[in-house]
Structure formats: C-alpha cells, structure tokens
Amino acid sequence: MPWQRRTERLILRRWLSEDREPFAALNADEEVRRHFVSTLTREESDASVDRFEAGFDANGYGLWAVERRDTDEFIGFTGLSPMPAGIPGEGGVEVGWRLARAHWGHGFATEAALESLRFAFDELGLAHVNSITAVGNTRSRSVMERIGMRQHGFFEHPAVPEGSPLREHVRYVVGALP
C-alpha cells in the first residue's frame, strides 16, 4: 500500500472506506473534541477524510489513518498538513494527531508523531515542523514536548470565535527555524 509506515505498535497508512465510521465516532466524542469549537457530524468527518486523502496527492504528504498492529483496529490519525493561513508559521508544515479516547495514555500519539517527524525530516527534507493547539490542551502539549518540540509563542486563532476560551493557541516548533 503506498504511503504506509510502520512503528513498533502502529501502522500509518492511507485511509480506507471502513475507517470513516470509527473516525466519525471519534469526531462526535465531546471529550476528544474538547479543545475544538465543536464536534463534527458524519458528513463533516467524511469531508475531513476526503481533504486528508487529497493532501497526499497535492502536497506529497498528508494525515495517515493510524491502525494498531496487534488488533488491526483503526484508532485515529497522525501526519503532516500545511499550516493554516493567518497564523504564525503560515506556509510551513504542521504535525498533528487525534486518537479515539480508548487509546489515550498508551504512548500511541507520541509514537505516531515521532514517525511523522522522521518522514518530515528524512524523506521530505523539511528544516522544521510546527504544531499548534489550544493553550488548555495539556495532553497534546505534552506530546509536543515529548517529541522534542519547544514552545514558540502564543496567538489568537482566527478560525475560533472571539470570546471563546479556545481562541488562545500556542505554537510549538522542532528543527531549525527559518
């Protein structure tokens, strides 16, 4: 399968049609989406998968579906995406992840994100990679720190409504700054 990567416990791969249902359940989970403006409908979740898949063809990288090697179970996503417009790091590349709650606390996000960074640096030759999250997202911020990223400033995310407690974001960076 093209674009597949393996770690000790995970397979990072392109999306399959059977991933859509568990991904929609993940995106409908209020705890998983706590640091986002809202949960996603099935249609919004499916549209995300379509964008992720299109990213591979458009950019030469994208957000992989993550599967456990021991159970063959879809557990979320990880990978690389273009940094959003209008924020610090615009024009760069971001590493990201989102896992189903049942798979939190096992080191899967860290393992998957490290493999994404290996791809970014070793195969894409990127000089640095960003990651952003809402300031209060301590779980993701901890992953960022475990994978060697360092805090690089705070900003108001323009896609988050003014007055929302989620509007304040933090940017992390790993690698040489431009």
Secondary structure blueprint with pairings:
Elements: E1 5-6, E2 10-13, H1 20-28, H2 42-59, E3 63-68, E4 74-82, E5 93-99, H3 108-123, E6 128-134, H4 138-146, E7 150-156, E8 168-175
How far the N terminus sits from the C terminus, by CA atoms, comes to 34 Å
Helical fraction equals 25-40%
Number of domains: 1
Low-confidence stretches: none
Total strands: the figure is: 8
- Strand content is 25-35%
Content-based structural category: alpha+beta
- Principal-axes geometry comes out as globular
Q: At the fourth CATH level, what is the homologous superfamily?
A: Gcn5-related N-acetyltransferase (GNAT)
What does this structure look like?
This protein starts with a strand and ends with a strand. By secondary structure, it is of the alpha+beta class. The strands form 2 sheets. Strands 1-2-3-4-5 form a 5-stranded antiparallel beta sheet, sandwiched between helices. Helix 1 (20-28) crosses helix 2. It is globular and about 40 Å long. Helices cover 29% and strands 28% of the residues. The chain has one domain (5-175): Gcn5-related N-acetyltransferase (GNAT) (Aminopeptidase, 3-Layer(aba) Sandwich).
